[in-house]
Automatic annotation (TrEMBL):
Recorded superkingdom: Eukaryota
Cellular component GO terms held in the UniProt record: extracellular region
Keyword annotations of the record: Disulfide bond, Lectin, Membrane, Secreted, Signal, Transmembrane, Transmembrane helix
Molecular function as annotated in GO: carbohydrate binding
PROSITE patterns found in the cross-reference section: GG_LECTIN
Transmembrane intervals: 7-29
Subcellular location: Secreted
Family matches, as InterPro entries: FAM3, ILEI/PANDER_dom, ILEI_FAM3C
PANTHER family: UNCHARACTERIZED FAM3 (PTHR14592)
Main location: secreted
Residues of the ILEI/PANDER domain: 111-173
Protein name: FAM3 metabolism regulating signaling molecule A
Amino acid sequence: MRLAGPLRIVALVVTVGLTWIVVSILLGGPGSGFPRIQQLFTSPGSSVTAEPRARKYKCGLPQPCPEEHLAFRMVSGAANVIGPKICLEDKMLMSGVKDNVGRGLNIALVNDVNDLLKFIRPLHEGTLVFVASYDDPATKMNEETRKLFGELGSRNAKELAFRDSWVFVGAKGVQNKSPFEQHVKNSKHTNKYEGWPEALEMEGCIPRRSPAS
């Protein structure tokens, strides 16, 4: 019976020692905080470091434009519901939010043939022209407007038809056809929307026209 006291003390020391060892293992040692415990309650997937967001440049372009170039991004209208957007040098020129777009050809809010001709004819040499369709770009166009767009560098203006999608960047006085143009025909076999093709998106860098050129 006299050994009961010492045995209890030994048992207590052993218990405390084992507890200390277990706690030390879980805590990862002195000064290390709680990494081991956190690892026990953290799923493997959650330990993956989140990738940093890709940097966006002017008008949301993935890469910056070279010096003496203008950054642009434009989106044609989606069916007759979502209006087009035209961004130049990080400034939104036209959008549904700005409430300055309309159905037809969005160079400005011009839907009348006579107004359109008055708008295009007096352009100065080197003037950039941004065009984004919305709903239907062709109904208000005649042969002269198609020819004028061709002179601005368009390949597709002459064949635009009812409810086609079209985005185009041209310039007054260009010698060659513009590389900045997209066109999708309205076709019931390929349309994304009922009665309309998909919206078009185009972005890029346009060289500035030097004063001497």
